[in-house]
Amino acid sequence: MDAQRSLWNRILIACGLAATLWPVAHAQTPANPWPTKPVRWIVPFPPGGAMDAIARTLGEKAGQALGQPFVIENKAGAGGNIGADYVAKQPGDGYTLMITSIGMATNKPLYGKLSYDPLKDFAPVSLLAIVPNVLVTNATQPDIKTVADVVAAARKAPGQLTYASAGNGTSIHLAGEMFTSLANVDMLHVPYKGSGPAVADLLGGQVNYMFDSITSAKPHIQSGKLRALGVTTARRSSTLPQVPTIAEAGLPGYEVSPWFAVFVPASTPKPIIQKMRDTLVQAMAQADVRARFETIGAEAVGSTPEEMASHLARESARWSKLIAERQIKAD
User: Fold this and answer.
1) Do the Cβ atoms of 129 and 293 come closer than 8 Å?
2) 39-130+258-326 with 133-231: one CATH topology?
3) What are the extents of the domains in the chain?
4) 74-121 residue pLDDT tens
5) Residue 293 near residue 299, CB atoms below 8 Å
6) Are 94 and 268 in contact (CB under 8 A)?
7) pTM of the full predicted structure?
8) Quick one: CATH architecture of 133-231?
9) Phi, psi angles (nearest 5°) of residue 35
10) Which pairing describes strands 96-101 and 39-43: parallel, antiparallel, or unpaired?
11) Interacting residues of 117 by C-beta distance below 8 A, sequence separation 6+
């Protein structure tokens, strides 16, 4: 009798334990694994640029891999701030992500006050790619063939030579500010509303130089209308391998690497972030994606969320210092 009572006690205890654990086990097995509906990918700039091309290329691949479409939405304006503010206020459910650029590190010191906090309101997913800027001049200038020539000419005529940009605070502008700071020369910055009109005036001879994105400069370099003097990145670009870096061409320590990365609202669960990151990195390893990147001068990178967080912190500190020193303000 005692043996039978002991057996029933063990059965009851086991049943009770199972009843206690079942809801926990059930809760840990999501009924609806992400994603179960379309994912919105916000591009905070107009269609047509490198950022938009990267998002559309990777969004198509991610949609194929995950079985749900990634829908690209362009929310342009205020140097990317309109799109960033929108994403910062979305639910952290994995259904809204944003591709952004160096502006994530520069907009706070440039604008003074933002409606969102780049470091606190977002969770990084991955660094995607770097698209170098390239120092170019009109090919009709016979005496300007190297970076050293630019520095020498600027020292002979302080404040008289000009460099164009796509607007105040853009990576193109900051590349020029870094150049004049390290070279200790005085050159006049001429901001435009976008790269297109700036390049048009450079081709027309209205301005002397530009640190243009390799994406828009490459066709003019290949046609012989623009002369490439140096790329802004720490290593030569695989798209223009014959063009030296500005550092190796005579300005040691110079490096500006315009980057593109993915962020989500800060409350997004880590498992979703990791799945999103793995999907995008796997897409970037595919041959057709790398070929597409090469056409726009983009070099795939990829990172962990933690590596991207560290990168953003370093970039924020670096650019905040230069922006304060040069007293740069956004438009």
Assistant:
1) yes
2) yes
3) 39-130+258-326, 133-231
4) 999 888 999 999 999 999 999 999 999 999 999 999 998 899 999 999
5) yes
6) yes
7) 0.85
8) 3-Layer(aba) Sandwich (3.40)
9) -100, 150
10) parallel
11) 88, 108
Q: Alpha-carbon dihedral of residues 227, 233, 238, 239, nearest 10 degrees? A: -40
- CB proximity list for 8: less than 8 A, separation 6 or greater: none
- Which CATH code fits 39-130+258-326? 3.40.190.150
Query: In degrees rounded to 5, what are phi and psi of residue 21?
Result: -80, -25
Q: What is the DSSP string of 156-212?
A: HSTTT-EEEESSTTSHHHHHHHHHHHHHT---EEEE-SSHHHHHHHHHHTSSSEEEE
Q: Could you report the per-residue pLDDT of 139-151, keeping only the tens digit for each?
A: 998 899 999 999 9
Q: Are strands 122-130 and 209-213 parallel, antiparallel or unpaired?
A: unpaired
Please give the biggest Cα pair distance in the chain: 108
Give strand pairing partners of 298.
none
Q: With beta carbons less than 8 A apart as the criterion, state whether 208 and 162 touch.
A: yes
| 38 HSE (CA, 13 A, CB side) | 9
What is the Cα gyration radius of the chain?
25
Strand partners for 264: 123
Q: How far apart are the C-alpha atoms of 282 and 317, rounded to whole Å?
A: 30
Q: Which residues pair with 260 in a beta bridge?
A: 101, 129
